[in-house]
Amino acid sequence: MTSLDSVLDKDGVRLTVEDAVATVTLTNPDKRNAQSPALWRALAQAGRSLPGDVRVVVLRGEGKSFSAGLDRQAFTPEGFDGEPSFLDLARGSDAELDAVIAEYQEAFTWWRRSDIVTIAAVQGHAIGAGFQLALACDLRVVAQDVQFAMRETSLGLVPDLTGTHPLVSLVGYARALEICATGRFVHADEAERTGLANLVVPGDELDSAVGDLAAALVAAPRDAVIETKALLQGVSGRSYEEQRTAERAAQARRLRDLAGIGD
């Protein structure tokens, strides 16, 4: 791809591509990158629009905050222009509501695809849906001013945008329950200590740190990274012996590929 090809720019989401690295940017800093159904559809479209040679996807937000979470306009009677309000959605059947939430979740699921590695560059507030969007990525590099919080429970709701699984995987059940049930802030030092953040850097170094990490990931052979990611993603669903078997099978594929021998 040529440098910084613009692939998508709509509804508060911009997708650009430079060689093997794509960048998805939330582009509504005046509202602290608050999220809406239109933004979620644009994020899902960004995932579908990735060129096949992209290996790393960086997710970032313009302005002082990564994302302040769901735009509260969703809970007003009028909702968003051209969208049903969440109050209207609540009046639908269980099946209808389930289908709508499943559609919203598509904005958060593709970041874990095995053929890419995703990095969230997080500064300032990452609240609710913003926290869950950062959790959707494989890796998180955060600025020293980061403030994570899961506020859904405090509002009488639950986190439903795929964030609960990675949160428990990263920090454990007890801490995840406490973070969600209290809605408290998690700052940079705790995020790094508990595994929420891979790296904490000063705010003015966030872009360069993410760039260095992306370059290091691209430097490794693609097929080896894909196989390794798949192995690690499957750990929670396998026993120790099953993981040993999966490692052997993956290594056999890599050795045959390096030797030019087909399966």
Whole-number mean pLDDT: 94
End-to-end Cα distance, whole Å, is 31 Å
- Strands, total number: 10
Rg to the nearest angstrom?
Answer: 19 Å
> Outline, from the CA principal axes?
globular
Quaternary structure classification: single chain
SS-derived structural category: alpha/beta
SSE order in H/E notation? EEEHEHHEEHEEHHEHEHHH
Main sheet overview: 7 strands, mixed
Helix content: 40-55%
> Hey, roughly how much beta strand do the residues contain?
15-25%
Low-pLDDT regions: none
Strand order of the largest sheet: 1-2-3-4-5-7-10
Number of helices: 10
Quick tags:
single chain; 263 residues; alpha/beta; 7-stranded mixed beta sheet; 3-stranded mixed beta sheet
Walk me through what this model shows.
- By secondary structure, this protein is of the alpha/beta class.
- It has 10 helices and 10 strands.
- The protein has helices at 37-48, 86-90, 94-109, 129-136, 164-171, 173-182, 188-194, 206-219, 222-233, 240-259; strands at residues 5-10, 13-18, 21-26, 56-61, 117-122, 125-127, 139-143, 147-149, 186-187, 199-201.
- Strands 1-2-3-4-5-7-10 form a 7-stranded mixed β-sheet, sandwiched between helices.
- Helix 9 runs antiparallel to helix 10.
- The longest helix has 20 residues, at 240-259.
- It starts with a strand and ends with a helix.
- The model has no long low-confidence stretch (mean pLDDT 94).
